[in-house]
Amino acid sequence: MSARLGAATGLGLLLASCGGSSLVLLPDEAGGHGAVAVLESNGKPMEAVVSDPDSRTKLGSANASPRPIGQMKADEVALLSGMPPPPRSYVLYFVEGTTELTPESQPVLDEIKAEIAKRPGVDVEVTGHTDTVGKAEDNDVLSKQRAEEILGVLATVGIDRSLMTAVGRGERELRVPTMDNIENPLNRRVEVLVR
User: Under CATH, to which class is 88-194 assigned?
Assistant: First the structure.
């Protein structure tokens, strides 16, 4: 049998127990969960889709029904304890037309450094954004410069540049939709994903 993870109301955590053919669906770090469709080896779907969080479903029957977990098995606990911490995302804001952080963003940058320091094998993704003031081409350049600025700051505290990426999205992904040439401090940002 195989399991296929499908997005329903959010991502859930799926544990397939190796020794005993059962499936455990746990809530994600935000308390949401997804759904799992269990397929036969020939690709035919079973009657039930597992979508109950904190449930265990015995596999191998056409009418699999989830039951509350109760207590997790030792191999499931071991699997969970070996998982990396969930990704964390941060937002830093910039002074208009510059790569200078706003004073309010400095403590957030310190939080990012601390989070990165406690993760082995860290992966950091930095995405720069702008508001709609100015030419789109100039905003593409500025957003990339903002992302590179943050990547550079993180590299100065000993984070290997090969573990980080920096991209600029210009004014393509506005946090607050505005018309062209409208300044908005919430759009002048860098988003940092640490995983």
Answer: alpha beta
